[in-house]
Amino acid sequence: MKLSKNTLEVLKNFATINTNILVRQGNTLSTISTGKNIFARAELSETFPKEFAVYDLNSLLSLLTVMEDTDVSFEDESLKVSKGNSVFEYFYADPNIIVSAPDKSIEVDNFFQFDLSKDDIEMILKAAAITSAPMLSVEGKDGEVIISVGDPSTPKSNSFRQVIGQTDKTFDARLAIENFKVIPASYSVTLSQKKFMYLESSKGDTKYWLALERSSDI
């Protein structure tokens, strides 16, 4: 099997959420952070032939990307990454020591929904890096919906703001920037009164459930 560029991108993103992963048989990959405040699922173009566990996803990614155009075969106790006469063997981990994601989706109630483009996502990530701000906020106030990156506890801190829509609702959804670990793409975003943010890619193949801060008013 050859892994596509998109699948490698998903694996790299999931490694930022949790370096442990349980890969189930099929074409759906999921992960959950150790604090269980980030949950992600992705549908892939490849189908994994068996279930296996990985303890250090970054080390596996190093093997998968050390050579171009490699083949991956899944054996009983290990996977082999090969090209020509060169072969890397990577042994599976014990599933019992892995923090594995649930094999199901989480029901979403639609309190408020909006769209973010790939450019919007990239700007949020750049703004967070430039300002060193800890919080992403989506605020409905005075008829407008404003997304901002800043520090709500420090009014004069560096920040970024962008009007993204209109609403007759009043709310303040806050998400720690360190939990905004999404692949830059276009998303439909839903705020839930269960205090989480749900992002679904425009293609419907990548989904994130991100827990909001307790200080959120929604």
In terms of topology, how is this protein built?
Blueprint: H1 5-17, E1 21-23, E2 26-32, E3 38-48, E4 52-54, H2 57-65, E5 71-74, E6 78-83, E7 86-91, E8 112-116, H3 118-131, E9 135-141, E10 144-150, E11 160-166, E12 171-176, E13 187-192, E14 196-201, E15 206-211
Antiparallel strand pairs: 1-4, 2-3, 3-15, 5-6, 6-7, 8-13, 9-10, 9-12, 10-11, 13-14, 14-15
Helix pairs in contact: 1-2
Give the structure's gist in a few sentences.
The protein is α+β, with helices and mostly antiparallel strands. The chain has helices at 5-17, 57-65, 118-131, and strands at residues 21-23, 26-32, 38-48, 52-54, 71-74, 78-83, 86-91, 112-116, 135-141, 144-150, 160-166, 171-176, 187-192, 196-201, 206-211. The protein has a 6-stranded antiparallel β-sheet. It has a 4-stranded antiparallel β-sheet with strand order 11-10-9-12. A 3-stranded antiparallel β-sheet has the order 5-6-7, covered by helices on one side.
Structure description:
The protein is an alpha+beta fold. It folds into two domains: 5-97, Proliferating Cell Nuclear Antigen (Box); 112-211, Proliferating Cell Nuclear Antigen. Helix content is 17%, strand content 41%. The protein has three helices and 15 strands. The strands form four sheets. It has a six-stranded antiparallel beta sheet. A four-stranded antiparallel beta sheet has the order 11-10-9-12. A three-stranded antiparallel beta sheet has the order 5-6-7, covered by helices on one side. Strand 9 and strand 10 form a beta hairpin. Helix 1 runs antiparallel to helix 2 (57-65). The longest helix has 14 residues, at 118-131. The radius of gyration is 19 Å and the shape is elongated. The N and C termini lie far apart (46 Å). The mean pLDDT is 94.
